[in-house]
């Protein structure tokens, strides 16, 4: 692997209610784009379904959403599902989820240092010439490989949600774009660039925001999937087959499930509004 390239882990947070083929495409589009810059190598993708405490209308239990995400990524060689966020009793801000995954990578990096070459070097025969010995010594020196960087993978809707009052803390937005970075997959003709231009914080850190154009437009959304299911319509080819089978087996989406959390204020709005008043 080219050491001059920064290794990147793509993290997608969201409801995944249910996960769709579009969610999986975001990872492929982002990976192609980042690898294509010549500066990055995408080594892993992580799907992190939000916990039940998020209180979004129509949000079915995290247990089911995690299983569906695991079924959807069953055949992927590089995208996996992480349950940490979904298991938290309280809703966790996206910044905290990013921080958790970056620290986890750093901890595993420390646990697996490259093997020390000292023992091998001591066993070398002295009859080698100085030239051979120095070249051998050089090749044996352990390379301190950098820890991969976690970046937030999102659609243009998440980027635009930054403007919704009290949905995000302004300091969280600053830290996300400054310390981690965004890879935003947007449809051709979408105003993601204009949105970045109109925000002082996003403009300041624009070099850490990668806007990926999705030329093969894909308008599948979880909301539309749930609507089709409520109406008894087919969702085949919109979600992975295993996900469709799981939904049908457990009869997951109905008018009743869509009313779940109806009238409940979304966790971030509740928390941030309360903090703004204090």
Automatic annotation (TrEMBL):
Annotated localization: Nucleus
Enzyme class: transferase
InterPro entries per UniProt: Cyt_trans-like, Euk_NMN_adenylyltrnsfrase, NadD/NMNAT, NMNAT_euk, Rossmann-like_a/b/a_fold
Biological processes annotated in GO: NAD+ biosynthetic process
Main location: nucleus
Catalyzed chemical reaction(s): beta-nicotinamide D-ribonucleotide + ATP + H(+) = diphosphate + NAD(+); nicotinate beta-D-ribonucleotide + ATP + H(+) = deamido-NAD(+) + diphosphate
Start-end of Basic and acidic residues biased regions: 129-143
EC numbers, comma separated: 2.7.7.1, 2.7.7.18
Location of the region described as Disordered in the Swiss-Prot/TrEMBL record: 109-143
Involved pathway(s): Cofactor biosynthesis; NAD(+) biosynthesis; deamido-NAD(+) from nicotinate D-ribonucleotide: step 1/1; Cofactor biosynthesis; NAD(+) biosynthesis; NAD(+) from nicotinamide D-ribonucleotide: step 1/1
Domain Cytidyltransferase-like: 11-227
Sorted UniProt keywords: ATP-binding, Magnesium, NAD, Nucleotide-binding, Nucleotidyltransferase, Nucleus, Phosphoprotein, Pyridine nucleotide biosynthesis, Transferase, Zinc
GO molecular function, one term: nicotinamide-nucleotide adenylyltransferase activity
Cofactor: Zn(2+); Mg(2+)
GO cellular component assignments: nucleus
Oligomeric form and interacting partners: Homohexamer. Interacts with ADPRT/PARP1.
Family named by the database record: Belongs to the eukaryotic NMN adenylyltransferase family.
PANTHER family in the cross-refs: NICOTINAMIDE MONONUCLEOTIDE ADENYLYLTRANSFERASE, NICOTINAMIDE_NICOTINIC ACID MONONUCLEOTIDE ADENYLYLTRANSFERASE 1
Protein name: Nicotinamide-nucleotide adenylyltransferase
Species the sequence originates in: Piliocolobus tephrosceles (Ugandan red Colobus)
Gene: NMNAT1
